[in-house]
Amino acid sequence: MSTHATVPPHRDPGLPDELRLDDLLSRLTTDEKIGLLHQHQAPVERVGLGPFRTGTEALHGLAWLGPATVYPQALGLASAWDPDLLRRVGEATADAVLASLDRGAGRNVWAPVVNPLRDPRWGRNEEGYSEDPWLTGLLATAHARGLAGNGARLRTAPTLKHFLGYNNEEDRCVTSSDLPPRVLREYELPAFLPALEDGAAVAVMPSYNLVNGRPAHLSPLIGEILRPAAPDHVLVVSDAYAPANLAGLQAFHPDPPTAYAHALRAGVDSLTQDDDRPDGPLGHVREALRRGLLTEADIDRAARRVLSIRLRLGEFDPAHPAGPDGGGDPGAGDRAEGGGGAAEPPGGAQPAGAYTDDTPAHRALAREAATRSLVLLRNDGLLPLRGVRRVAVIGQLGDTVLEDWYSGTLPYAVTARAGIAERVETVFCEGADRITLDTDGGRVLAPAGGGPLEVAAPGHGDGTGFDLLDWGGGARALRSAGTGLYVDEQPDGTLACTAPGPGTWEVRQTFRFEERADGLACLVQVHSGRRVAVGAEGVLRLTDDPAGAAGFRVTGLGTGAAEAARAAASADVAVVVAGDHPMVNGRETEDRTDLDLAAAQERVLRAVHAANPATVLVLSSGCPFGVTWADDHLPAILWSAHGGQEYGNALADVLFGDAEPSGRLTQTWYRSADDLPGPLDYDIIGARGTYLYFEGDPLYPFGHGLGYTHVEYAAPAVTVDGGRVTVTVMVVNTGPRPADEVVQVYTRQLASRVRTPLRALRGFTRVRVEPGGGAVATVSFDVEDLALWDTTRDRFVVEEAPREVLVGRSATDIRTTAALNVPGEAIPPRDAYAPWSATGYDEARGTALCPLTPERGDAVRARADGAWAAFHDVDLGTGAAACHLSVNAGHAATVRLRLDDPGDGPTLAVVDVPADQDRYGFTAVRAPLLPDGVPARGIRDVYLVFERSGTAVATLGFSRD
Q1: How far apart are the first and last CA of the chain?
Q2: Is pLDDT at 546 greater than 70 in this prediction?
Q3: What is the pLDDT of residues 882-933, one digit of tens each?
Q4: Most CB atoms within 10 A, among 262, 518, 524, 702?
Q5: Which of 84, 92, 124 is nearest to 109 (CA)?
Q6: Residues in Cβ contact with 48 at an 8 Å cutoff, skipping those fewer than 6 apart
Q7: Before 112, cis peptide (omega within 30)?
Q8: Of all helices (H) and strands (E), which one includes residue 243?
Q9: What's the CA gap between 155 and 92, in Å, rounded?
Q10: Residue 514 in 3-state DSSP?
C-alpha cells in the first residue's frame, strides 16, 4: 500500500521511480543539482540526501581497500568459459563491497572491462575477457549480473569500462582509434551492448582516447546507441582526470567550461576530476551555465541519471539505512544463491555489518575459479604427474603470488611451491642471477639499515649481492640479497633497498642495463629515463645528465640458470613457473612491444630442460607469450592468468590430476609480434586481425585447451526454426578419464560482397563425459546473429549466401562440419545517385577517420599523399554526368575519382578542393565527369584518391546532369 500521504513522494516505494525522481529534483536548487555531477557528490541535508561517491574497483574482487578475496584476473576468469562462475564471482565481490562500506567502499563499482582484446600487447590485456566480442558480452553480462543482483533493488551498480576503441596505453590520451562502420557495429559495440540490454550493467565509463578524431567522452554514440539499448537510465562516469584532457592534452576545445559543457551535452553525468576536490570541475560547469553553453535542462538530465542509480540502489526507500553511499543491501532478499555468503531473509535489508569477505565459501570459490582457469596448452603425456617423489619448482614466479593494479591486497597466498609441496617433496630455485656491481671506486653496497646504496671500499662482502629479476622488455628489478627489499628511488633522488617489490602507480623500481663501448653498463630507470650516478660520498642517485652516469661492471650474469639446472637435475620433474609481473612491462600506461618471454627467464627454462627433459612450463601472466621454443621442445605447458590467493592449490590440483584441465584460451596466442598489425590499427577487417580474420598459423588458437583424455565428435545435426539455429552433436570419450569438454560452435560464410570472418564463435556448451560414454551437446543461436553491417544501406543484413557450421575444440581444431542454410537477402549495388558517407568504404589505404562536426558525424581524411578509399559495386546506371562531394582541406588540393584501380584506373573526375583552415569547414563541390574519359555507366568499383595529405571527404555521389 502506498504511503505517499505520510512521506515525501521520492521516499515512497509505492510510486513509479520516475515520479519519485521528479519529486526529488523539484526539491533541489540548480546549485545542488550541479553538486551531484562530480565523483564526490555533495550531501543535501535538508532533503535527506547523503554523500555519495562513484567508483569502487571490483574487477576480480574488491580492490584498493586492504585485504580482500583475490580471484584470478579477469582474463583468467574468462578462460573458464563459464558465465555462471563469473556471476558467482561478481556476487561474492558484491558481498565484499557491502562488507566494506565503513572503510571507504562505494556501491557504484567500476567493473567489468569489456574492451575486446584485439591486440595482446595491450598493457591492460589482463583486465579484459576475450578478443571475441560475443564472448566478451556474454561473460560481462554474467559478472555484472552477479555484482548487481537479481532483486528489485541493485546490490551494487556495475559500470562498463572503457567506451570505446581502447586497446593501447602509449599516448592513450591523444591517439585516435579509427573505427569504420563495420568494425564499430560488428566488433566493438557487441561487447558493450549485452550487459546494458540485460540491465545488468547500469553505468558506462568512456575511455581516454579519441575515436575517429573525437574524444570518446564526447561520443554521440553514448546517446544514440548505448542509452536506447538499456531498459532504464544509464549513468555515464568520466575516467579519472579525462575531463581536463578535453581542453588540455587533446585540445579539442579552447577552455574547460566549453569542454565540460560539451561532455555533459554528449551524455557524461559524473566528472571524475581532481579527486575529492570538486570545486574546480563544478566551477567550470557553473561557468558554462552562465555563458549559455548549458541549459537547466542539461543539468536536470544529468542529475536525474545520477539520482536514478541511487534510487535503484534503494537509498531513498524508507527501510534503507542512512549513511554514506546508502549502506545496507536492499536487494538482498532476491539474491541468487551460490555467491559465498550467508543465507538472507526474503525482502529484508541487511546492515553493512551483516556481510563479511574472505569467508571459507569465498576461499573455496577462489580455488574453484583458479582451478578452472588453468589452460593446458601442450602435453606429450607427462601430465598428470604420476609416481613422482621429488619436484623442482623453479622460476621467478615459483614462490610468489603477485597482485595487479586492480586487485585487492592478498589476505594470504598459496604459491606454486607451497601447493606442490603439499603433495610431494620439493626443491626450490628462483633462478634469478645473483650479481654484484663494481665501479672504479669499489663495489655497490646496500646497507642493512636501509640507507642509500653506496660504493664501498674493497673488502666489504655483506650487502653487496643483488638478485636480478628480469620481467621482459628490458625492465629488470634489483633486490638486496641481504634484506629481500628492492632498489627504489627515494624522495631526494638517491637509491635505496626499501620497496617490497615493483609497484605503485609510478613504478620506480625497474631499470634497464645499457652496455657502453668500454664494456661497462649504465643503469637507466625505466620510469624516468634518468641514469644512475655515483654522487657525493659514494652514494648512488639518479641524474638527468647522461654524461654523469656511472659505469658498472656486472658480475654474476647467468648464475641463476646454472643454479636452476642443478636443482632440476636433482628432481624427478622440474616445474618452471615463468611469466610477467602485472606492474612491469605491460600494465596501465605501458604496452608491451613484443610477445617474448623475458630473456633471463627463457635462459633458465632452456637450462632446466637440458638438465631434466621432464620439464613442465607453467606460465602465469595477463597476456599471451610467443613461446615457440618451449612448444617445440617441452613435453607440457600450462597457462593461467595471475590466479589470486588460491593459485598454488589450483595448480597442484591440475598438475597431479585431481582436477581436469578445463580452461580454454579466449584470445589467440601468436608466434611473434610480426603476426600482428600495428598497435593503433583498430580496423580488424582491413588488417586481418584477431582469430576472426587472421590468416596465419597461430601458436595456440582461440578456444584452445587440452584435457587429460581423448574425445571424438560425431557429425552434427543442424536445424533452423523460428529464427533460431540449433546444432546438436554427440561427443564420445575414448580415453581413461572423465572429460570436461567445451564444445565450440562457429560459422563461416562462404561467399559475400565484402570480407567476412574466417570463422566466428556462435555459442558453446560444456559437457561432462565419462570414460567410454557419450553426451549430446546442443548449441543454439539466432539467425540474426549471422548479420553483417551493410554500409550501402546502413543496417544489419543477413546476406543470402552459403554457410557452414564448424564444431570443434578451438577455432582451428574443427572436428566436424555441416551446411547451414538460412533465409537471407542479396545486398544490392550501391546507388550512385543517393549520396553516401565516405566512411562507408569497403577498403582504404593511408586514411584516417575524422569528425565532421565537433558533435557528430565522421569523414575520411588522407594521412599521406596518394591515400585512397574504395567503394565496390557502385551502380552508375546508364551513365553519370557529374560527381558531388563534401570536402575540406587546410590547403588547396585535388581529389581524383578513378574506376577499378586507385593507381592506374581510368579517371572519372578531378575535383578541386578549396582551402579552409576550419577543419569542420566542409564545402559542397560539383565536378563534371571528364568528357573524353571512360563512360561512367554500369556497376563499377569507384576509388576516391587523395592527391595531398590532409584532404578530407565527408560524402560523395553522382548525378546525371
Answers
A1: 71
A2: yes
A3: 999 999 999 999 999 999 999 999 999 999 999 999 999 999 999 999 877 6
A4: 702
A5: 92
A6: 11, 322
A7: yes
A8: helix 242-245
A9: 11
A10: strand
Closest among 512, 640, 569, 94 to 340, alpha carbons compared:
94
In angstroms, rounded to a whole number, what is the distance separating the alpha carbons of residues 105 and 97?
A: 6
Q: What is the mean pLDDT of residues 780-791?
A: 98
Q: Cβ distance 540 to 480 under 8 Å?
A: no
- pLDDT for the residue numbered 350: 47
Rounded CA-CA distance 486/510 in Å is 9
Q: What are phi and psi of 914, to 5 degrees?
A: -75, 150
Quick check: 131 and 74 in contact, CB under 8 A? Answer: no
Which triple of cell numbers denotes residue 928? 563534371
Q: Return d(Cα 731, Cα 715) in angstroms, integer.
A: 10
- Give the closest residue to 138 by CA, choosing from 208, 86, 60: 86
Task: Please state whether beta strands 724-733 and 636-640 pair in parallel, antiparallel, or not at all (unpaired).
Answer: unpaired
C-alpha cell at 245: 584532457
C-alpha cell at 733: 570419450
SS3 per-residue string spanning 134-158? HHHHHHHHHHHHHHHCCCCCCCCEE
Determine the Cα–Cα distance for residues 953 and 961; give it in Å rounded to an integer. Answer: 21
Residues ≥6 apart with Cβ < 8 Å to 344: 329, 332, 333, 335, 350, 354
Q: Which residue has the cell 554514440?
A: 221
User: CA-CA distance, 753 to 824, in Å (whole number)?
Assistant: 14
C-beta separation of 303 from 268 below 8 A = no
374 Cβ neighbours under 8 A, 6+ residues apart: 79, 638, 639, 640, 643, 650, 651, 654, 661, 662, 663
Cell of 563: 643454479
Gap between the Cα atoms of 190 and 532, Å rounded = 49
In which residue are the cell numbers 553538486 written?
35
Helix (H, G, I), strand (E, B) or coil at 667: coil
Q: Residues, the chain, total?
A: 961
- Torsion angle in degrees (nearest 10) through CA of 474, 480, 483, 484: 20
Assign 773 to helix, strand or coil: coil
Strand partners, 907: 898
Which value, in Å, is the radius of gyration of the alpha carbons in the chain? Answer: 30
Residue 172 carries which side chain, given as an amino acid letter? R
Q: How far apart are CA 266 and CA 566, in angstroms?
A: 63
pLDDT tens string 44-76: 999 999 999 999 999 999 999 999 999 999 999
| Amino acid code (one letter) for 642 | H
848: helix, strand or coil: strand
Instruction: Name the CA dihedral angle for 934, 939, 944, 947, rounded to a multiple of 10 degrees.
Output: -20
Residue 711's DSSP bridge partners are 733
Express as a percent the part of the chain with pLDDT over 70.
Answer: 95
Strand, coil or helix: what is 674?
A: helix
673-680, Cβ contacts within 8 angstroms, sequence gap of 24 or more: 673/121, 673/593, 673/594, 673/595, 673/626, 676/119, 676/120, 676/121, 677/119, 679/119, 679/121, 679/122, 679/167, 679/168, 679/170, 679/591, 680/168, 680/175, 680/177
Grade residue 462 by pLDDT with cuts at 50, 70 and 90: confident
Q: For residue 266, what is the enclosing H or E element?
A: helix 256-266
For residues 576 and 64, give the distance between their C-alpha atoms in angstroms, rounded to a whole number.
31
Q: Are 396 and 432 in contact (CB under 8 A)?
A: yes
CA distance 388 to 64: 41
Q: How is residue 262 written as a grid cell?
A: 560539451
CB 136 within 8 A of CB 125: no
